[in-house]
Write a structure and sequence with these properties.
Layout (H helix, E strand, L loop, with lengths): L17 H17 L1 E4 L5 H10 L1 H6 L2 E7 L19 E8 L8 H6 L2 H10 L6 E2 L7 E6 L5 E4 L6 E7 L3 E2 L2 E4 L10 H8 L7 E3 L6 E4 L5 E4 L2 E2 L4 E6 L1 E2 L8 H8 L4
Antiparallel strand pairs: 1-11, 2-3, 3-5, 4-15, 5-14, 6-12, 7-11, 7-14, 8-13, 9-10, 9-12
């Protein structure tokens, strides 16, 4: 993996070595303090750029245009009246490639590398993580063109793992509000405050190509701000689970990818 990753700075290939343990300890500390950690330049920028180039044609011919209006929960909430500010709707728009559309890519190579899952599990303080059995959902790559954005939402999984491959000219920032809710408190008023732009604790960061970003997606509200300029924002999302052989249902695949298989 030395050819695609900077393993001198980030020794993922040497589990339980002193350097590996130091890196894991720092990532855990960042997760506790900030709700996320970033490994800037884990993938070599030239490799990330090559991956984007190799996906240009698939994005033009095969990608699914994911475009819909939604609230932050992607569903109705029975506890709230339809006009509650926490249910404000926004538009999300991007193009998505699935794992079966990028065979032989460095992204799949990284995803299936056992030491990657082992490292992530250690940072998340989990005993083990498994790759998905789902041929579509295991790795997704999203492209955001000028004007497109991924709007406010919470993720279903506790942690979210992404790798930025290409940054836009302007915009496309990652905006987030850590621990906006909890498993016992939905904090609907706090959600409404954030959506009105009145939460001073929300942050926007700009990632550089090759950066691995891991954050607490389940209770952290987050979005990608609208992309500006002619350069697309391209990012890979890796899906790991504590249980082996996880697959999406047909309805979930249709909703996310426009096809069941």
């Amino acid at each position: 993996m030395h050819d695609i990753l900077d393993l001198d700075r980030f020794p993922l290939h040497r589990p339980n070595s002193p350097e590996w343990r130091t890196l894991v300890k720092q990532c855990r500390a960042d997760l506790r303090a900030e709700g996320m950690f970033n490994l800037d330049g884990l993938m070599r920028p030239a490799i990330a750029a090559q991956a984007v180039k190799e996906m240009e044609n698939p994005f033009q011919s095969d990608a699914f245009l994911h475009e819909r209006m939604h609230n932050i929960y992607f569903k109705p909430v029975e506890d709230l009246p339809p006009d509650h500010a926490a249910l404000t709707t926004f538009q999300t728009s991007n193009k998505t490639l699935c794992a079966d559309q990028i065979p032989g890519s460095v992204l799949l190579r990284l995803y299936e590398w056992p030491e990657f899952a082992q490292f992530l599990a250690a940072t998340m303080e989990m005993p083990q993580l498994h790759v998905m059995a789902d041929p579509l959902a295991r790795v997704n790559v999203m492209s955001y063109q000028k004007g497109q954005a991924l709007n406010w939402h919470f993720d279903r999984s506790e942690f979210t793992t992404t790798l930025l491959l290409q940054a836009p000219d302007h915009g496309g920032g990652f905006e987030y509000r850590t621990d906006l809710r909890s498993d016992t408190d939905p904090n609907y008023d706090g959600v409404a405050k954030l959506l009105r732009g009145e939460d001073p604790t929300s942050n926007i960061i700009t990632l550089t190509p090759g950066t691995l970003n891991v954050f607490k997606g389940k209770n952290t509200a987050h979005r990608v701000t609208p992309v500006q300029g002619d350069t697309n924002r391209v990012i890979a999302v890796f899906s790991f689970f504590e249980q082996p052989d996880v697959q999406f249902s047909e309805s979930e695949r249709l909703g996310f990818y426009g096809r069941a298989s």
